[in-house]
Design brief:
5% strand, 2 domains, mainly alpha, three-stranded antiparallel sheet
Length: 281
């Protein structure tokens, strides 16, 4: 198996990729470093435990389709062939032949589920082996326009991902700030409630709770610097939330206030980015 791995700038520097939490990006890079020469990862759960990633990070990568999952528990990196070009003498074929036979490549070289042949028989899929996420793929195609519109409006939500207890945890964390006491948990029928659930869906509960702590550490957002003071409605808006997690409102003269998790994730991200740049050169 080849020892070096590469990451295409068109993938890892795209807005869609950078919109994900840093922890999810680091998990993607870690999968990329440990995958076999066809982009398959045999033990994603074990890797997540080793690098301190959460299920939320994995779910984000699956939802954004940066990785594809199989019933066997194995995953594959969707853009592997775009990221990596291996010489034949350094290439070792994957041992996960059955999973690979359920895939084909699109025009750009990314893995996709295999298409149907003209006779209606699945191409490259042995009998008895299901195509990965077939139902979800068809459902996504049918409702893609609606999902895109909700995502633009910042109101995309999914109760199977955003659980009631997650909303309660964010509510309790916000109340502990002491700057704007909410009378009750934002209902899913209100604009703020929809956007809160969308943020949990898009970023994961861990990242939303971390964003509340970023607010707590920010003199500007807490109203200690100017007349402005953050409100909950302002907090859950897509662009504002992204600016918060990206550190736009951090206290620039107090770098020691960065959280331990943030420092660790930034260190991992910088290290993997350096590896990627070294491989390209």
């Amino acid at each position: 198996m080849a020892e070096k791995r590469m990451f295409a700038k068109t993938i890892v520097l795209s807005d869609a990729f950078l919109d994900m939490p840093m922890s999810a990006r680091c998990l993607y890079f870690t999968f990329g470093m440990l995958a076999d020469d066809d982009g398959f990862v045999s033990s994603p759960k074990g890797i997540m435990r080793q690098c301190g990633a959460s299920n939320d990070d994995l779910n984000i990568l699956l939802a954004k389709r940066y990785i594809l999952a199989f019933d066997s528990g194995i995953i594959v990196i969707k853009h592997w062939r775009i990221n990596n070009y291996l010489r034949q003498d350094r290439y070792t074929p994957t041992s996960y032949v059955e999973e690979k036979e359920t895939l084909t490549l699109d025009a750009k070289g990314a893995y996709i589920e295999a298409a149907q042949s003209e006779s209606g028989i699945p191409v490259g899929i042995p009998p008895g082996i299901p195509r990965i996420d077939k139902d979800r793929e068809e459902k996504n195609r049918e409702g893609q326009d609606r999902l895109d519109q909700e995502r633009e409006e910042g109101t995309l939500s999914d109760e199977s991902v955003c659980r009631p207890e997650d909303v309660r945890r964010v509510f309790d964390a916000w109340q502990s700030l002491g700057i704007q006491k909410l009378r009750k948990i934002p209902d899913s029928t209100t604009n703020a409630g929809k956007m809160l659930r969308a943020r949990i869906k898009d970023y994961g509960i861990g990242s939303v709770l971390e964003a509340v702590e970023i607010v707590r550490a920010s003199d500007f957002l807490m109203g200690k610097v100017k007349d402005f003071q953050i409100t909950f409605d302002w907090f859950v808006r897509p662009n504002n939330f992204l600016n918060i997690v990206n550190g736009k409102y951090d206290n620039r003269d107090k770098p020691e206030q960065q959280t331990r998790q943030g420092r660790e994730m930034q260190s991992k991200y910088d290290m993997i980015k350096k590896w990627s740049e070294a491989d390209e050169s």
